[in-house]
Design brief:
By secondary structure, this protein is mainly α. Helix content is 45%, strand content 8%. It has one domain: Transferase(Phosphotransferase), domain 1. It has six helices and five strands. Strands 1-3-4 form a three-stranded antiparallel sheet. It has a two-stranded antiparallel sheet with strand order 2-5. A hairpin with a 5-residue loop joins strand 3 and strand 4.
């Protein structure tokens, strides 16, 4: 059974920054989910920081797949596939992240290309090579969990 621990929204509100490897992992694994749906002739109805879930192992799942809808091959553009929404989320993570204006040229170029290049081209982008292993997200998930528990204690 897969149980989510945090969302990207939790990462965005955490008091520590996300690093480039963590960013690449979240984006790459989200794109994997989008590609899987596209290959089934479907697209997500919505994508946002509250619909990208991570578990303790650093695995990513997309919420709302049950509300996905049928698409035609001709409809596979950035808006339909939610690549524009993913770009917005990536931009938010970069704004609060470790790079804070010092992100690599690969990360910046990937962000620019996200709403304009095809999904298949994006999956071959050098930036995603930084997403070496889901375990790179474990520390991020652990930290966000720790912060969430701390916030609950303060209530």
């Amino acid at each position: 059974m897969w149980v989510y621990t945090i969302t990207v929204d939790n990462i965005l509100t955490a008091p520590w920054p996300v690093n480039e490897t963590e960013l690449a992992c979240v984006v790459c694994l989200t794109l994997d989910g989008i590609r899987f749906l596209r290959d089934q002739g479907r697209a997500l109805a919505t994508l946002g920081p509250d619909t990208v879930w991570l578990n303790k192992r650093g695995q990513v799942r997309l919420a709302g797949v049950e509300q996905s809808y049928q698409i035609k091959t001709s409809d596979t553009n950035a808006d339909t596939l939610k690549l524009t929404a993913l770009a917005t989320g990536m931009r938010s993570m970069m704004a609060t992240g470790a790079g804070h204006g010092r992100w690599s040229s690969e990360a910046q170029t990937f962000l620019e290309n996200l709403p304009v290049k095809s999904l298949d081209m994006l999956m071959k982008d050098p930036f995603l090579e930084k997403a070496t292993d889901e375990s790179d997200l474990k520390l991020c998930v652990h930290g966000a969990n720790k912060q969430a528990r701390h916030d609950l204690v303060l209530l």
